[in-house]
Design goal:
This protein has 2 domains: 85 residues, no CATH class; 236 residues, Rossmann fold (3-Layer(aba) Sandwich), CATH 3.40.50. It starts with a helix and ends in a 14-residue tail after the last strand. By secondary structure, the protein is of the alpha/beta class.
C-alpha cells in the first residue's frame, strides 16, 4: 500500500505541501502516513480505511486507493496539519531485537558476564526488554520465553534455530531519546501504533504485546537526551563497571554527517571509563562515514542502503574492534549471517 501511495503522493503537489507543515527535519513520508493512519483509527467507516487490514479493511490495492487517500487528506486537512506540525517520527520496530540479541551474543564471546544495556533513540524503550520476548526464527521457537510479543525473522543462508544464544544478565536498562514515549498516555501509545504499516496485522499485535509487557515491569526507563551531546555523560552515570552495550537501530539516518561523528565521539569518550560495545542495525553508507575499521565498507557494500548491516564495535580507551555480523532487511524481516569476518555480502542478491 505504501509503495502505491508513495508514487501517488510524489506526483501530487497538494499532498506534498502537507509535509511543509512539519518541521524541516521531520518532513518524511513516514510522518505523513502515520498522521493519516492515526486519524483512520477512529474513522474506520471511511473509504480509505477499507484498504487498511490493521483497521479491519479487506479491499485490495486498486486504482481507487490514491484518490481515496487524497480525498481523506482533503477532508481532514486541519487535523493533519496539526499532527504534522506538532508530532515527530516515533517507532519501536520490535523485530530489530533480533539484531540486538545477535550483537549481545557477539559481546558475550569477547566479554563474558553481565552487561548494562542502553538504547540511543529508544522511543518508548520496548527494545530494552528484548530478553522477555518470544523469538521465532524461520517459524521455529528459539527461546523459552512465553510472551505475547512474538518476534519473527527469516534467516537466509544459515539454519535459523541455532544463531541465538541465551542472553546474559542485564544489570541496567536505559533508553535515551529526544522525545520519549510515555506508555501510560493512551494518546502516546496510539501515536506509536500509527507507525505500523497497513498490512502489518501481526506486527501490530507484537507491538501491543510489548507495550502490555512494558506496563507490567519497571525494569527499563527512558530519559530525555541527545545522542550527540548526552550519551557519554549518561553512560558515565550508570553504576557498576560491567561493559555497557549501546544499541542503535536507524539512529544514523536521523543524524547529519557532523552529528554522526559527534555520536561516535561520545562512545569513544565513554569507553575511557568502562568497556563499551556499540551494537548497530544501520544503513551501510551511513556506517561507512563513522570510521568503523571494516574493510568491506570501503567497497560496494557501502552503496547497499536498501539493506541494513548488523554488527558490533567493542571499545576500550583508544582501541576498538569492529565486526559485521550480517546483512538484513531494515526491519529485520530477514537476516543473513556473515560467512566470515571479511564477508562483504556480495553473495546476497541486490534486489
Amino acid at each position: 500500500m505504501y509503495e502505491t501511495l508513495s508514487e501517488g503522493v510524489a506526483s501530487d503537489n497538494g499532498l506534498l505541501a502537507l509535509l511543509l507543515d512539519a518541521p524541516e527535519q521531520q518532513r518524511r513520508p513516514s510522518l505523513l502516513f502515520a498522521a493519516v493512519n492515526s486519524l483512520l483509527a477512529s474513522r474506520r467507516g471511511s473509504d480509505l480505511a477499507a484498504y487498511y487490514p490493521i483497521h479491519g479493511g479487506h479491499r485490495a490495492v486498486d486504482d481507487q486507493l490514491v484518490p481515496a487517500f487524497s480525498a481523506f487528506c482533503g477532508q481532514h486537512r486541519d487535523d493533519l496539519t496539526r499532527l504534522l506540525a506538532q508530532r515527530s517520527t516515533q517507532t519501536n520496530e520490535i523485530r530489530r531485537c533480533v539484531a540486538l540479541r545477535l550483537g549481545i551474543d557477539h559481546v558475550q564471546r569477547h566479554w563474558p558476564g553481565p552487561v548494562a544495556l542502553v538504547e540511543v533513540g529508544a522511543s518508548a524503550g520496548l527494545n530494552l526488554l528484548f530478553d522477555r520476548y518470544d523469538y521465532r526464527l524461520d517459524g521455529e521457537a528459539s527461546s523459552a520465553a512465553a510472551s505475547s510479543a512474538v518476534v519473527s525473522c527469516e534467516v537466509r543462508g544459515s539454519s535459523g534455530t541455532n544463531i541465538l544464544r541465551t542472553p546474559p544478565t542485564i544489570t541496567r536498562r536505559l533508553g535515551i531519546d529526544q522525545h520519549p514515549i510515555d506508555l501510560s498516555d493512551p494518546d502516546a501509545r496510539a501515536w506509536l501504533e500509527a507507525f505500523i504499516w497497513p498490512e502489518q496485522v501481526e506486527e501490530l499485535a507484537t507491538l501491543r504485546g510489548a507495550i502490555d509487557l512494558a506496563a507490567t515491569t519497571a525494569a527499563a526507563s527512558v530519559v530525555t537526551g541527545d545522542a550527540t551531546t548526552d550519551t557519554a555523560r549518561m553512560l558515565s552515570e550508570l553504576p557498576g563497571s560491567e561493559p555497557v552495550v549501546v544499541f542503535t537501530a536507524s539512529l544514523l539516518s536521523y543524524l547529519t554527517g557532523q552529528a554522526r561523528n559527534a555520536f561516535v565521539a561520545q562512545l569513544r569518550e565513554a569507553a575511557h571509563r568502562r568497556p563499551v560495545a556499540w551494537v548497530f542495525a544501520e544503513a551501510p553508507g551511513l556506517l561507512a562515514t563513522t570510521a568503523l575499521d571494516v574493510p568491506a565498507l570501503r567497497g560496494p557494500l557501502a552503496q547497499r542502503n536498501s539493506r541494513y548491516l548488523v554488527g558490533a564495535s567493542l571499545r576500550r580507551a583508544d582501541q576498538h574492534h569492529d565486526q559485521l555480523l550480517g546483512l538484513a532487511d531494515p526491519y529485520l524481516r530477514w537476516f543473513s549471517p556473515a560467512r566470515d569476518s571479511t564477508d562483504d555480502f556480495q553473495w546476497i542478491p541486490t534486489d
